[in-house]
Every structure is written in C-alpha cells, then in structure tokens.
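BUG: 3D viewer hangs when loading the predicted structure for this chain

Environment: internal workstation, default settings.
Expected: structure renders.
Actual: progress bar stalls at 90%.

Input used:
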Amino acid sequence: MNVVTERIIQLGMLVFILGGWQLGVTAGFIDVFFFPAPLDIFNQIVSWIVDPGFYKHVSITLTETVLGYIIGTGLGVAAGVWLGLSRSAARILDPFIKGLNAIPRVVLAPIFVLWLGLGLWSKVALAVTLVFFITFFNAMQGVREVNPVVWRTQGSSGPNVPICCGMSIFRRRPAGFCPRCARRSASRWSAPSLVNISAHRQGSVT
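Structure tokens produced before the viewer hung:
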C-alpha cells in the first residue's frame, strides 16, 4: 500500500466520521447540547475569526502561556541541574518535591486566584506549576545519567572553574572569567608546569 492510498483512506475515514456526526445530530440521535453539529462548530469558528476582539483574547492567552513556559522552564532546569549534581540536597528535598508534585493542578488554581487575583499572574503561576515539574524531573535525570567518564574528562581537561562561574561542568570557560578563576588558572598553568608539559611531550615524541 503506497502513501497515496493511505492518504485516501484517511480522508475517507474523516469524511465518514464527520458525515455520520452531522447526520446523527440532524436525525436527533446525538444530543446537540453535548455534541454540536460539525457545521455549527465551523460557523462559530468563522465568527470568532472575523471578530476583532477575538485576537485581543488570544494575545492575552498567548502572553500567559509564554510567560508561564519561560519561568517554569528556567526554574525547572536550574533546580533539576542543582539537585542532579547534589545528591544530598536531592535526598533532603525529595519528599517535599514529591508532595508538591502530587497536588492536583486544579486545586492550585483557586489558591492562585486568592493570592494573585483574577489578572494575568494567577494564570501564569498555574502555567509555571504545569511546566516546572516536567522540566525539573527531566533535567535532574539527564544530569544523573551523564557518563562518569565525561565528568572525569572535564575535571582533567582544563581549569577547574567553580559552579558560580557559569556551569563549567558542561562547558569550559575562558581564563579570567572571574578573579578567582584567573588566580586558579594562573597557579595551575605556571611556568614550571609548562616546562614539565613541554619536556613530557618531547620525551613522548622521541
């Protein structure tokens, strides 16, 4: 069966489902209150599209969605990387995180309305709770599943830049990123060290 035949079958199934739905509503077998006719739904969508006020509501919804996604992703990644690196902190906070994750998001909605009102930020807070835990658990698991060889390679491949200087475990930072790193880099790559490295390389070549 080729691709064209599969698409024709899919189109036929769509026409059969929508046609049967429309006929069921027209014949009275399907309750209009629960399942409006497809044509009525299409006409309502068209009326929304031609209404200028519709786009104002869409922009507000998109703003809430984008803000919730950005804030939730940022917090989730930061917390996930931190607890993925610190096993002791993860063990301490594990019951609290699981308890918060077990709370239904529908229960949090009226609480956020009481705290933040009916405006923008109550919806953003609810979106943050939806995004945070998904991002958090994936980030933490991803950090924990990094091959130990990668950690050892990173530790021996250059200056040991601390975490406060920008997550050096994932990416080497240039020397001088901060005074502390510059001093550590200078002490490691001093003149005697460079001489020893040069002598070692010459001996290995000969």
